[in-house]
Design brief:
The protein has ten helices and twelve strands. The chain is α+β, with helices and mostly antiparallel strands. It has a twelve-stranded mixed beta sheet, sandwiched between helices.
């Protein structure tokens, strides 16, 4: 997503090597390389023009990915960086299980220097960093129609699993809760979806005011960046059949900039379990912009990002309800910044 080739082959090779077989120091170096690339990207208008130059069917698919915060309909694995870039491992791509022609899409993106390929790996700098401003999705798109068709038939729809790696391992024994562990791990990256990490608040249950307001649904974790105030709902899916979407919907109504649903499990669940959660989010308009992250166990060196949180546009559906509560909450969130 740039006007010129802004990463040379040696830097690209170091970036790939660090993500796939790195020590902590190598990973930090890779993230610095990625940060330099993303910060050198041209203005958003230029990016939108490049996307508009894509063939119509491909433009609709890529636009949907940007608005939804995931690469849907593709059986593949990859990595996401703290600055919103994506690295894909085409060795894990399964065309027979995908519902879009991924290689054709990548060829079109590469032609326009929106992505860079070296061997089996593809680098898309700043893909989700710019997704908030690169929303050009028509009301009806190929992906939405295909998604509705697959959802109606109850079939498994794949999406790219994006690993967010940490430079070190974080052990539960050093933290009071899984929420604190998660927040400190993200603080170590400096950037979080995709702003500079500033602070965090655990278990927000009420809003301080002349008459304190108790929240119907407490907020497990709030992470504040220079761009957003991000609410998180944590669910231990080994211990409950609930998936946390009701609480996430409440966070949408409260008016947080972004919302993330985090599923915690001591063992990896069947991949279809996570995909069904993604489908559930995508097929409920009020949850459409909610992000979805999975973490395994209580000692983590990475999380899986199934869906990046997008800016909470669903607030428009609640503009006539809870206006007093939202005003108090927004005042409190501004102070957190």
């Amino acid at each position: 997503m740039c006007s010129a080739l802004i990463i040379d082959d040696k830097e690209l090779e170091r970036l790939f090597k660090a993500l796939f077989q790195a020590s902590g120091d190598q990973l930090r170096e890779a993230y610095l390389i990625d940060k330099k690339v993303v910060e050198s990207i041209g203005d958003p208008t230029y990016i939108v023009r490049k996307l508009h130059d894509l063939p119509k069917d491909i433009r609709e698919i890529v636009s949907y990915w940007l608005q939804a915060g995931l690469i849907l309909g593709v059986e593949c694995r990859g990595y996401i960086t703290p600055h919103g870039s994506v690295v894909l491992d085409l060795g894990t791509y399964r065309g027979s299980r995908s519902i879009v022609d991924f290689k054709q899409i990548l060829n079109e993106l590469e032609t326009r220097e929106i992505c860079f390929r070296k061997g089996r790996y593809v680098y898309i700098p700043g893909m989700f960093y710019f997704s908030d401003i690169a929303i050009i999705l028509p009301e009806e798109s190929y992906v939405e129609k295909k998604l509705d068709e697959y959802f109606t038939m109850g079939l498994d729809v794949p999406s790219v699993e994006l690993v967010l790696k940490f430079p070190s391992t974080f052990l539960m024994e050093y933290y009071t809760s899984i929420q604190e562990l998660y927040a400190e791990a993200m603080r170590a990256l400096n950037n979080y979806f995709f702003g500079t990490f500033i602070s965090y608040v655990l278990n927000l249950t009420h809003i301080p005011s002349v008459v304190p307001v108790v929240l119907d649904t407490p907020v497990d974790l709030i992470i504040v960046t220079n761009r957003d105030v991000i609410a998180h709902k944590f669910v231990d899916i080994d211990r409950t059949l609930r998936r946390g979407t009701t609480a996430a919907l409440k966070y949408v109504e409260y008016g947080f900039d972004k919302i993330v649903l985090v599923h915690v499990s001591r063992e990896k669940q069947d991949r279809i379990t996570y995909r069904r959660t993604v489908m559930n989010i995508l097929n409920k308009r009020l949850l459409f912009y909610v992000g979805y992250v999975v973490m395994y166990g209580y000692e983590i060196d990475h999380v899986i990002v199934y869906k990046v949180p997008m800016y909470n546009k669903a607030m428009e559906y609640f503009k006539y309800t809870n206006t007093g509560l939202r005003k108090l909450l927004r005042q409190q969130l501004v102070r957190l910044r």
